[in-house]
Amino acid sequence: MRRITRITTVGIASAALALSATACGKSSTDAGSSPSSSTGATKAAIAYDIGGRGDQSFNDAAYEGLKKAEDELGVKGAEAEPSEGEGDADKVQRLTALARAGNNPVIGVGFAYAPAIEKVAKAYPKTTFGLIDDTSKTGPNIANLVFNEEQGSYLAGVAAAKASKTGKVGFIGGVEVPLIKKFEAGFVQGVKATNPKAEVLTQYLTQPPNFDGFSKPDLGKAAAQGQLDKGADVIYAAAGLAGSGAIEATSKAGKWAIGVDSDQYNQKGLAAYKANILTSVTKDVSDSVFNLIKSVKDGKPQTGEIRYGLATDGVGLADSNPEYKKMTDLIAAVEKAEKDIVDGKITVKTTP
């Protein structure tokens, strides 16, 4: 039976007030400690990135890891959603409430949680904090769960170049930040290595501090339509929830879309467009979340940088679409590129 508790922003504030009252009453645990460590119960929480659960991509992958921990480890899970236009103070409040409630580990989904985790981890040294997609903030109780997105994106570039009939392909980045630049760099390199004459159309939806490019499907849809109008027949979007709009536009045009983070061919919310989702660049966010929770439950919490790349199946290219499996030349090119990356014959760029 699922026991995941979803916490809204209002719920967090209420919980924080209630928990503050408990702390003032001298609870059995010291400030900065995790109640679960004293009771032996295992509670784990994830705080979602922009777009929240239901993005069919990054956040949903993290949720699957929490659900797996519930099902296989008997963990009681909690989820906390972001609020639109929030700042670091909101994230600090959210993480503090989750830690104070006895969750261990507490996992921030996305680099935007870095400043908040750095602050809250110091206040709760007995709680393990997971920080996905960021290594800028470290600590003795922080696990930095990071991925070689550029490697998976290189494979997507190979696939795009092989599948394209027009010689024009598109890349859509949600927000122009260093993380998404890694996706662009790998993709462009893979395309050009496969077809030097190919043209890659690149567009970012927003610039920081505007992060709507990760949450507004209409932005992705409009960008994809613009690239389709220019002749692109394969479009790869690394844009979170906004990427679903790009997939919709590409599918309706009868062209190929490449998904990201999760195997988007199998996402229920994208079922209407799955026939045109050629493949997806997958990041094993699910297992990274599960592995961190399991390490805490086992009494050997992960800390420091934990990297997932091609060599460990931490990133890859999905082959769920039956049409993809029929493209023997494409598959052979992807498999060769994957082997060459793992063997060190190809070094994939992390910046365009």
Automatic annotation (TrEMBL):
It is found in: Cell membrane. This is ABC transporter substrate-binding protein. CDD domains: PBP1_PrnA-like. InterPro entries: BMP_lipoprotein, Peripla_BP_I, PnrA-like. Belongs to the BMP lipoprotein family. Residues 1-23 form the signal peptide. Keywords: Cell membrane, Lipoprotein, Membrane, Signal. Its main location: membrane. Residues 49-331 form the ABC transporter substrate-binding protein PnrA-like domain. Gene3D superfamilies: 3.40.50.2300. The keyword Lipoprotein applies. One of its GO terms (cellular component) is plasma membrane. It is a lipid-anchor. It comes from the Bacteria. It holds the Pfam family Bmp.
